[in-house]
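Board work, copied verbatim: Sarcosine oxidase subunit delta
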Amino acid sequence: MRIACPYCGARGVHEFTYLGDAGLTRPDASAPDAGKNFYEYAYLRDNPEGAHEEFWYHGSGCRSWLKVRRNTKTHAIEKAELVMPQALGAAS
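↓ predict structure ↓
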């Protein structure tokens, strides 16, 4: 599998680290049901078939975070774009 980094061009997947599903939102830690929400966030995940958006880190290249649209059935990469660290749910 090759990922087309916007800075470095197409590179082998071994240069990247998979972070996870780009569609998840980190739960609010101050919510009354935070424990249940974090449990579901961490352990209850869908296993989609077909197009899926994921976060990947190009650690062996430009060190950019990418949002990659990948077909989970064929592993074909449809799109890769740069994302800002805030999009990853990082604390501000």
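The chain has one helix and six strands.
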